[in-house]
Amino acid sequence: MSTTATIDLRTLAGAAHLDAVLRCWIREQGILVTADGLFTPVPGTSMNVAASCVHLSRTGLHSFTDVAIVHPDGARHEVSAEELLALLTSDADPQERALLLQRTQESVRNVSEFATRKRTVSLDQPLFLEGERSLLLGHLQHPAPKSRDQLTPEQLEAYSPELHGQFRMHWFEAHRSVVTNGQVTGSPALGSHELHELLSDIAGHEPAPEYVLIPAHPWQAEAVQQRTAVRKLMDQGLLRALGPLGEPWWATSSLRTLFHPDHPVMLKLSLGLKITNSVREATATELRRGVEVNQLIDAGHIRYSDPGFTIVRDPAWAAVIDPADETGGTLTGLDVSVREVPEGVDRLMCLAGLIAPSAPSGPEAWGPSHLSRWCNDPGAWLASYIDRVLVPMLALYASTGIGLEGHQQNTLVRIDSEGRITGGAYRDNQGYYLAASRLAEVLACTGEEASTLAVAEDSIVADRLTYYLLHNQLLSLVGSMAAEKMADEDSLLTVVRERLLAARPALAAAGEAGTRLVDRWLSAPTLPCKAHLATRLAGIDEVVAPVDAQSVYLDIPNPLVTDP
Hints:
The chain is α+β, with helices and mostly antiparallel strands.
């Protein structure tokens, strides 16, 4: 690609981030946008932000052009995403503001690199993997969706799914006395293997007697060896770094979950990079949660209302702990969660990858999504999506009080060779909420004294599901389809209302919480939604924050009410 085209792609990447910044600001400040655009004050100044609106969206997925700062004398100057953020967040915490500006600049640079060097579709790889590689822009409502904590260019190349990142895991031999683990029996992916036998087979290495193997992301393997607890274990001979072993594995969209088409499991590793809002290192609760969910599935407590919908299981985990901690449970950053590869993975694609814009064929606009190339009847496809993917998640919540954090990246869509939906799946051993009123049922099923699920007041769980299942998943799908001019947004919102109404009887049979949530979605003038800019500026790490303070939430207008 020529230098001129590369520069234009950087401009295109910057424009995408400008859109994201404005979407965040408009949503969080309650600013009115019309077909003519917007004109709104810059806080604490006599200046205004002005922009023309090229796509007006009731779901919030607006697109803008000619974004500029207007001075009191009428003079205008165009701004970058970083410059606009600096003006709009002048009263934020200086340290958090500086970090956000830095990461937004980094995200723009990375998106430009992804767009410039995006490779062609690999026809010999599963559809699943193509979806994982398709998130060139990332979260369209986040100001820094593709920041990677200042990875070097070489590391960005190796570790980024957008660049088809493939690498060998680094391995450690750890003495059994400093390893804790968990595993369910009867997992098809594990077969007759004990967890550490499976890991040895993957590494192609037999550990010394009384030692087991623990894999690590290459970045993490280097970083953890600088930590005091890890250095101490290594000095005592309880932990040994072996370096890279086994075959190269592919990075997926989370960066830390690795996939290989010839293995029945994926491996989810800790990664101490701050990606969007959180450092991606596992907690002990997260690791144990996968096993508890397996127990609930095996006991029949978790059932599916649609035979085509499943939860992707995480049946085993292992972690190196710091024995100096009196509780014996402090993790060191060396851990692995084993995830089953879903049956028919070659026909599964994450929703985010399905609707993501593709690499530009030229320097003027982003390319079409996978969905736009497959979908001949947008209304029917959306209706099928609601019936086969969303409603099973709602039915699970209605029957058990368990809410899935089903954002676009965690939601998998099963499609046939004609692009028709045949089912769906949910993946993530982090994102399980449990309404407090249903805790006793879960404990009666597992026989444990406590649950690893994220237990919260029923109202908080309902708010979280309103964001993840409605705003982030369903309405983002509607907004993306409309933005690509696949169908009129109002007609798609009509489909949403019709299918949610049609689901009420089945949800009512499963439990009143489901219909109560759907009725709220269909009638409330405002609904709770995550504020990504405010959450980022608050410095909240959503992985470790308590459920009731996990993010900044606000109420926004509900696009499902009948009046525009």
